[in-house]
Specification:
The chain has 2 domains: about 5-65 and about 170-370, QueA-like (3-Layer(aba) Sandwich); about 65-155, QueA-like (Thrombin, subunit H, Beta Barrel). It is about 20% helix and about 25% strand. The protein contains 7 helices and 17 strands. The protein has helices at about 110-115, 155, 200-205, 245-255, 265-285, 335-340, 345-355; strands at about 25-30, 40, 55-60, 60-65, 65-70, 75-85, 90-95, 105-110, 130-135, 140-145, 185, 210-215, 240-245, 260-265, 305, 320-325, 365-370. Helix 6 crosses helix 7. Residues about 110-125 have low confidence and may be disordered.
């Protein structure tokens, strides 16, 4: 297996620059794994492919306005993309700018229209938010410490960090959030969920489809291309995720009743499979069938913590029976994940069909349902 096995050509014209309205009017390509057949539909009609007793598992993470700008003492402008909060004041961030060494002091910037709305610092004459580079990490990653919590300033200084292949300005930042986004912490949206509307979710639940929530705070590495010739040598960074006991109970009931667990997006897939692996490992380690959490009839237990789950072809899925996903970048870990689920040849052929049928690709693009 080589990274080049997951390459394909995509002309820029196929990359969706703006979200379609309404959300559920995007197109839906259905891939049936047992036959390899493809069908074309509209996302709002996805209920035709779901059954009473199935369970949709969605990622309720919320994208934070994590792209901010600052100035060096010399006046040079610096861009910070906050990836993960480590404590009240400290974040891991991507920092764009020269000379970003340990000890470098930065003044967080706002534009003139915002400046008068921000709390003023009598000492500095501006709104007083400072940052310091406290550690140099890999590449452009830095550990950055602010002089006070930055979250209250997000509405004034933060910008939604759209992917670099989107060049159009987003009129409504909420269109880069799912309608069920609740838990702030992501640097990017779980885009497979962008197609759902409240009405569609209500309709699916009224036909007997269950809905359960997980959280995985999405980092940018999930979308980065794999540069190693051998994808197995690629190091995927960790992301924080949570699968509650309530969701674990819903999954276990669904599997026991013969329903399907349908992951909405690769982030939900990774959370589900991380929890399933942890449950299996704990059961093996304890060998205690008396534990209510690890009872033999359960498929998964509650799980909270970091995950570096990296799914390549050959992986044996433990919980996921079907998935909803968008069309992914070449050579990405996400394309490898869906290839592990449906087969590399089947996925690449589906992508070629999607191009011939003028589907829209990537974050604001159309969707796939893999059964």
């Amino acid at each position: 297996m080589k990274t080049s096995d997951f390459d394909y050509h995509l002309p820029p014209a196929f990359i969706a620059q703006t979200p379609i309205e309404p959300r559920d009017s995007s197109r839906l390509l259905i891939l049936k794994r047992d036959t390899g057949t493809l069908e074309h539909s509209i996302f709002r009609d996805i209920g035709e492919y779901l059954h009473p007793g199935d369970l949709l598992v969605v990622n309720q993470t919320r994208v934070i306005p994590a792209r901010i700008f600052a100035r060096k003492p010399t006046g040079g402008r610096v861009e910070l993309l906050l990836l993960r909060r480590e404590d009240l004041l400290t974040w891991e961030a991507l920092v764009g700018g020269k000379g970003m060494s340990v000890g470098k002091q930065l003044v967080v910037e706002s534009d003139d229209s915002r400046r008068r709305e921000l709390p003023q610092s009598p000492k500095s004459g501006d709104f007083g938010l400072r940052a310091e580079i406290v550690d140099v990490l890999e590449g452009s990653r830095r550990r950055v410490r602010f002089n006070e919590p930055i979250e209250p300033y997000f509405p004034k200084v933060g910008n939604v960090p759209l992917p670099p292949y989107i060049h159009e300005k987003l009129a409504d930042p909420e269109r880069y959030q799912t309608v069920y986004a609740r838990d702030p912490g992501s640097a990017a949206a779980p885009t497979a969920g962008l197609h759902f509307t409240p009405r569609l979710l209500d309709e699916l639940q009224s036909q007997g489809v269950g809905l359960a929530y997980v959280t995985l705070h999405v980092g940018l590495d999930t979308f980065a291309p794999v540069t190693e010739d051998d994808p197995a040598e690629h190091q995927i960074h960790t992301e924080w995720c949570d699968l509650s006991q309530e969701t674990a109970d819903a999954i276990n009931r669904t599997r026991q009743a013969g329903g399907r667990v349908i992951a909405v997006g690769t982030t939900s897939v990774r959370t589900l499979e991380s929890a399933a692996k942890t449950t299996k490992d704990e059961r093996r380690a304890t060998n205690d069938i008396r534990s209510p959490v690890l009872r033999p009839s359960s498929f998964v237990a509650q799980f909270t913590g970091p995950t570096s789950c990296y799914i390549l072809p050959g992986y044996e899925f433990k919980l996921v029976d079907a998935m909803i996903t968008n069309f992914h970048l070449p050579r990405s870990t996400l394309l490898m994940l869906v290839s592990a689920f449906a087969g590399r040849e089947a996925i690449l052929e589906a992508y070629e069909v999607a191009k011939r049928e003028k589907y829209r690709f990537y974050s604001f693009g159309d969707a796939m349902l893999i059964l």
